[in-house]
Amino acid sequence: MKKIDSIYSDKNSNYSLVATIIGLDNDDVVVVVTGGYDHIGAIGLAIPRPSLEDQNCTSATSSILTMLGHKEDVVARYVSEKVAAATNRNVVVIAGIHYDNLAQEDLETLHEQWVILTKKIIAHINQ
């Protein structure tokens, strides 16, 4: 194992997320995305490949496993595919986010947080 780092989406948000990034010896990456009550909600594996629309661009193919009753599959798919495509590495994302009694605007804030976090993860890996 090469290294473990933690990155926060926005520490000032009520719904801040944290990514723990584990770089493996073969350059594969494991990212654990948590917020609120930490747990395993979904796991995503994304593998980079040439884009089907433009062979000059990199995209990713993903497989997702979701725990019964959980909705983190959306996060696991988004983060794993974006990170794999941007870094050209195999990426596993373990997502577990739980906050009680969220209104629609809170869900939108959480979505913004995982988009911000994904950009930070990509920048960190590519540095």
Give the tags.
alpha+beta; six-stranded mixed β-sheet; single chain; 127 residues; Ribosomal Protein S5, domain 2; 30% helix; 36% strand; 2 helices
Describe what this molecule looks like in 3D.
The chain has 127 residues and is of the alpha+beta class. The protein has one domain (3-126): Ribosomal Protein S5, domain 2 (2-Layer Sandwich). The chain has two helices and six strands. α1 (73-87) runs parallel beside α2 (104-126). It starts with a strand and ends with a helix. The mean pLDDT is 93.
Q: TL;DR of this structure?
A:
With 127 residues, the chain is of the alpha+beta class. The protein contains 2 helices and 6 strands.
